[in-house]
Amino acid sequence: MPRLLFILILFVVSFLVVRSIRNKLDKNKHIDSDDANRGDQTNNNNKTIMLKCDECGLHVPEHEAIKQGNHVFCSLEHARQRLE
Ligand SMILES: [Zn+2]
Question: What residues have their beta carbon closer than 5 A to ion ligand 1?
Fold first, then answer.
C-alpha cells in the first residue's frame, strides 16, 4: 500500500512539474512573439523613406508620393500645380 501511495505522489509531482514548465514555455513564447512584432514594426518604420514634396515641402512616405521625373509631390493636385 505505501508503494501505491508513492507512485501516486510521483504522478502528481511529475504532473505539476510538467505543467509549470509548460506555463514557463508559453510565457517565453508570448514574450518572444511580442519582441518579434515590435522588431518588425521598428524595421518597417526604418524602411519607410520619406520624400519631400517639391510644391509645399511636406514629407510623405515613398509609397504615397507622386513622382514626375525628378520631382516628387505629396498629391496629384500639387503635381498638376507645378507642371502647369
Ligand atoms: Zn505638396
Answer: 53, 55-56, 58, 74, 78
